[in-house]
């Protein structure tokens, strides 16, 4: 909790797409936002302005989650004065290619951002939450991490790794009143999926439509705010039935 007494939500990768929708939804639920992003200052400033227009405080924090040193330098000074009540790990990139043609850079960049980044951030946050004896952590994985997807061996590996990491962490910190859960979006309309032909995906989705970022954000908000909470260490899909 911040020095002002307001609840704080750390949204990692919060400037665009699903992360932006999550940050806005949590702000509407009364959280001040620590919004991290890598380098799109314009998108971060736009999201911050939207949040501040609602009367909440938003602090934008640029750093590369793939770097432990950058992550530590960005977060540790803030943690000396405040402990986030909520952490949402949404940072993620895709570099799709068939494995036989995948370059080492395509593999390592995806795994370092999506999976190493989770360690780099959570390593800073979880100690503060343990001291506070409270907290909620929501990890944004993907349907690709549950069922695999051709052309996404790197992405699927990183997102499956997040599921395993979150479940293990849930066993470590549950007794300290820290709830850890995973949200696994399916085909959601964002910049990341803009180049994927919808007509190829829709036949696979029983609801016969793509999802919206707000539909993911609503579930994340529930996991972060619901007082009657016995959901812990779970993976919840938001995919229209794409994976069951």
SS strand fraction? 15-25%
Assigned CATH superfamily: NAD(P)-binding Rossmann-like Domain
The geometry reads as globular
Query: What is the total tally of β strands?
Result: 7
- Count of discrete alpha- or pi-helical segments spanning 4 or more residues: 8
Please tell me how large the radius of gyration is.
17 Å
Characterization of this structure:
It is a single chain. The mean pLDDT is 95. It contains eight helices and seven strands. Helices cover 44% and strands 16% of the residues. The protein has a single domain (8-238), classed as 3-Layer(aba) Sandwich (Rossmann fold), CATH 3.40.50. Strand 4 (86-89), helix 4 and strand 5 (135-140) form a beta-alpha-beta unit. The radius of gyration is 17 Å and the shape is globular. The chain has 244 residues and is of the alpha/beta class. A seven-stranded parallel β-sheet has the order 3-2-1-4-5-6-7, with helices on both faces.
Sum up the structure in keywords.
7 strands; alpha/beta; seven-stranded parallel β-sheet; 244 residues; single chain; 44% helix; Rossmann fold
